[in-house]
Specification:
By secondary structure, the chain is mainly alpha-helical. The protein has 2 helices and no strands.
Length: 50
């Protein structure tokens, strides 16, 4: 049972970019909420860099 639980936490390198992307979205969302509290209008923009 312990081994199965630990295997749930194993991430491959392919999952790292996905995890970092979601963490960035959380940080941007929090920054936009803080800006809204200060009366600053903000909108998220997403770009793909190659």
């Amino acid at each position: 049972m312990t081994r199965n639980f630990l295997n749930l936490r194993n991430y491959g390198y392919k999952d790292l970019n996905h995890w970092m992307e979601k963490q960035t979205y959380l940080a941007v969302g929090l920054a936009m909420m803080a800006a809204a509290e200060l009366g600053i209008e903000a909108t998220p923009l997403e770009a793909t860099f190659v």
